[in-house]
Amino acid sequence: MVIKSIRDLAIREKRVFIRTDFNVPMDKQGNITDTTRIEAAIPTIRYAVEHNARVIVASHFGRPDGQRKPEYTMEPVAAKLAELMGIEVTFFEDCIGMGPQQMVREIKPGQVLVLENLRFYPGEGDNDGAFAKDLAKLCDVYINDAFGVSHRKNASVHALPLLMETKGMGFLMEKEITELGKLVNFKHGDGFTAILGGAKVSDKIGIIRSLLDSVDALLIGGAMAYTFLAAKGITLGRSLVEKDKVTVAAEILKGAEARKVRLLLPEDHIAALSMDDTETQVFGNKDFPADMIGFDIGPKTVKKYAAEIGKAKTIFWNGPMGVFEKAPFAKGSVALAEAVGNSEAHTVTGGGDSVSMMNKAGVASKIGHISTGGGASLEFIQDKTLPGVEALKE
């Protein structure tokens, strides 16, 4: 089973449909605040333009839930793409039907057309075959460069490529598969360390169980750590605990012990009365007050985790150690980001929060690979493939 790259396909003067992940953050004034996802897809789009393809760019934006909502239009994204590429980009206010088909006929080789938000139609989220057939009418060649949504069976990511005879991956997708593919065949003793944070254990159960078979060390932070601590009989005041996942956490702890995996949990915490409180205190697991809430890992934990990071040969990180968006609770995440960035290990991070952490710590340029997908990177490492990847195989 082979997946071809866009460079392997005959695209000259062909109608090339490029599925991108342009679900970018935008402020209340309609300004795009981070262009990382757009910039990541530009090499693939530029390659198609330079090879005289008729380029159709499609993406989702926000969560319009299958309805046409003006605040989720792709028009400002199309304008930003034109600005970043320094070329003219045409936008059309629909993605299926006679209108887009006519626009595709009118664009010339080397020109770019951006379609309206795919999620304006419920068929996209439902992986609807009829919706995919409508999209297929627009193109001769299908390219998936949207790794960040390839874990979802959306019509433009799954049903559409299954209909296409000529299909492949863009440069971003190719890099993601190559880099994350390096993490799926490790065994105990290879020096693989994983750092997992975030709010919920429930979001990470699958990946944790998978990693227990390959990592030598697993460092857990964020609010999900409190559920693991609860499984050990440690209560941290009013800190968030998923009570229905305490048993699962206990099973994972036993699994780590059986496999001789060093599963590290926080020993101390940055605590406050509320997330908006600017006055913080450091407490250990044994002296944590009943009325306080943990929002970040403490200095002893940072030191312990940093020492473990220093031993690693390969590091994968997904999820923050605390509520790093708030300055009082960012120190733990930033300190570990610095440790990861300065380590001699091969480093991979996944997800928007992880990217923000690396940028805040000023170490993004030192990271071996920063994945554009959070959930997608976790599922790829867990399952060694994704629905959107499988659909590209010939």
Overall description:
- The chain is an alpha/beta fold and 394 residues long.
- The protein folds into two domains: 166 residues, Rossmann fold (3-Layer(aba) Sandwich); 202 residues, Phosphoglycerate kinase, N-terminal domain (Rossmann fold), CATH 3.40.50.
- Helices cover 36% and strands 16% of the residues.
- It contains 15 helices and 15 strands.
- The strands form three sheets. The chain has a six-stranded parallel sheet with strand order 3-4-2-1-5-6, with helices on both faces.
- Strand 13, helix 12 and strand 14 form a beta-alpha-beta unit.
- Helix 8 crosses helix 14, helix 9 crosses helix 10 and helix 11 runs parallel beside helix 12.
- The model has no long low-confidence stretch (mean pLDDT 95).
Topology:
Layout: E1 15-19, H1 36-50, E2 54-58, H2 75-85, E3 89-91, H3 98-106, E4 112-114, H4 122-125, H5 129-136, E5 141-144, H6 155-163, E6 167-169, H7 171-181, E7 192-196, H8 205-211, E8 217-220, H9 224-231, H10 246-258, E9 262-264, E10 268-272, E11 281-284, E12 293-297, H11 299-311, E13 314-318, H12 331-342, E14 346-350, H13 352-361, E15 369-371, H14 375-383, H15 387-390
Parallel strand pairs: 1-2, 1-5, 2-4, 3-4, 5-6, 7-8, 7-13, 8-9, 13-14, 14-15
Antiparallel strand pairs: 10-11, 10-12
Helix pairs in contact: 1-2, 5-6, 8-14, 9-10, 11-12, 12-13
